[in-house]
Amino acid sequence: MTDESFRAQARNRLIESRLTPNAISLTGFALNVVAAVLILEDLFFLGGVAFIAGSLMDMLDGRYSRMSGKGTQFGAFLDSTLDRVEEGVVLAAIAVEFAQRGDDVAVLAVVLTVVFSYMVSYTRARAEALGVECKVGVASRAVRVVILSIGLVFAKGAGLGDFELLEPAIYATAALTLFTTLQRIFHVRKQLVRVPEQV
Q: Which domains does the chain have, with CATH numbers?
């Protein structure tokens, strides 16, 4: 049996199983809640691992939905909703950590990260409701996950050397999400100006 036929057989068995995209989404949500709890316990490395695992689930559910044909409109809605909740829960735990350190500037940066991360998603959804494709911008969900994951696994006391990358990761994410929100606003404006409004 070749590698390709083995992969095809494994994929078919997975599709025929009872596994649903919603189950993957809910697993990702649970892992992100675990990540938030671990962060609150100052277990940053483990929190980072849980966050990465949960985020991978978030990326797999959509792909599995398309591949298996098991996707539903509600499943897509649930996936998007849980993505926002997961991001907010993990960032809230990080904000608590900074607040306990007395680092008000970092707390503010987390708040800005939450606001503009949501705006990155909202601007795309609102643009697509107007018939404009809006995938432009540097701070996609995947990019935000990578930056925050690095910040968590290399947080001070996480066990991977004497680094403190959590705070820089938050500052970088806040700046990039703000920039991406502006990118999307100007992109949508440019696209809509080209299309005269129907009178």
A: 3-193 (1.20.120.1760)
pLDDT digits (tens, 9 = 90+) for 32-67: 999 999 999 999 999 999 999 999 888 886 676 767
pLDDT tens for 169-195 read: 999 999 999 999 999 999 999 999 875
CB 123 within 8 A of CB 188: yes
Please provide residue 98's backbone torsions phi and psi, each rounded to the nearest 5 degrees: -65, -35
Helix or strand (DSSP H, E) at 15? helix 3-16
Rounded CA gap, 90 and 196, in Å? 42
Integer Cα distance of 51 and 34 in angstroms: 8
Task: Give the global pTM.
Answer: 0.84
Q: Which burial class, exposed, middle or buried, applies to 1 when counting CB atoms under 10 A from its CB (0-12, 13-18, 19+)?
A: exposed
Q: Residue 53 is inside which H or E element, if any?
A: helix 44-68
Report the distance separating Cα 180 and Cα 185, nearest Å: 9
Among 127, 192, 131, 157, CA closest to 44? 157
